[in-house]
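[audit] Reproducing an earlier prediction to check determinism. Same input, same settings, fresh worker. If the tokens differ from the archived copy the diff job will pick it up downstream; this log only records the rerun itself.
[audit] input (411 residues):
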Amino acid sequence: MKWAYENSKFYRSLYSGAGLEPGDIKTFDDIEKVPKVEKSMLREIQGKEPFPYGDILAVPLEDVTEYRQTSGTTGQPVYQADTWQDWELWSESWAYVLCAQGYNEHDRVFLPFGYNIFVAFWAAHYAAEKLGCEVIPGGVLNTEARILKMRELRANALMATPTYVLGMADTATRLGISPKSLNIEKITVAGEPGGSIPMTKKRMEEAWGARVYDHIGATEIGAWGYECVCQSGIHINEALFTVEIEDINTGELITEPDRPGKMIITNLDRMAQPCIRFDSKDIIEWSANRCECGRTFRTLKRGVIGRVDDITKVKGVLLAPTAIEEVVRSIPELGDEYEVVVVKKGDIDDITLKVELKPGNEGSTDAVKNTLASSLRLQTNLGYNIEFHDYGTLPRYDVKAKRFRDLRHKE
């Protein structure tokens, strides 16, 4: 806080407006006095001097060595400046992730993502090298070429979004290659909640015959959470981050387990753009159990359950899109892709779920529809218009999938 107050005009103004100085924060309980920062605040200041980051920048512009930006899935992308020290921090935080998941000098890691302005797996690349892994950058190769290169070079580890991991398995099968024959031993997923959704994780592990580990991070924050080899929850990297959980409605600090709330997070070492009490909008809950791995970092029970801005009210019922994903992925006859569309018909909400049957299951439409409808009713308390589409016709995604479309406000 002292660094931000003394070097960032944005933070000095924020804290001065709240009547706070760094010396006022003496105990952990005092942290609640510090004003929170939201993504909308970052969007408002960017594009101004020092361009393009605005007055949140806490270092001379000449010290910035890395540019990244958010994916823009929740609105206008946020620009992120990093110094070389910040980038080393990114690598170090990812090294915690990969070390906990068993990566070492014996691994040949394939990274099938486009190396571009999104942070994605950039830091994972350098962290893997730091741990002694051999790293194969999949870069501009298309999915088919990536699969063939993985087979050619005998990669044994893979990192991608859950959507792309499933998509690669599907593509390999269409090429006549069993994903299991590629002998991938471990897969690290990030960018979507699927790695902590049990049925999505099960699909990935069964398709590849590999252990799948989740990782959670964000451009503005860093690589703050990870699953270890015990696969019993998400560890908070408390060596580099401080996490608080707030009641969504009251703002009350939640310290007990099994009670979901909103994550407020602080990166303890970020220099160029400090991240202090950032309101991530992620919904998480503490676990009551310590992990068998022996790490003392606290764990989350179900990873990121959803986002405050993802949870929406449909027909008077609060709906989390992750609940739909869990149901769809639990039915073996259904493909991996689906799409949810919510519209308003008169004064009534109308929700449609589009799914695909896997090849060879065309005769089971009625049975699958009944199972899907009853499971959705049980899990979400809602009825759906269920549409079956030809296999391979729903949108496919290489990075973050956009499967939930709420069109009510556009009508």
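[audit] rerun output stored. Observation attached for the diff report: The chain has a mean pLDDT of 94.
[audit] end
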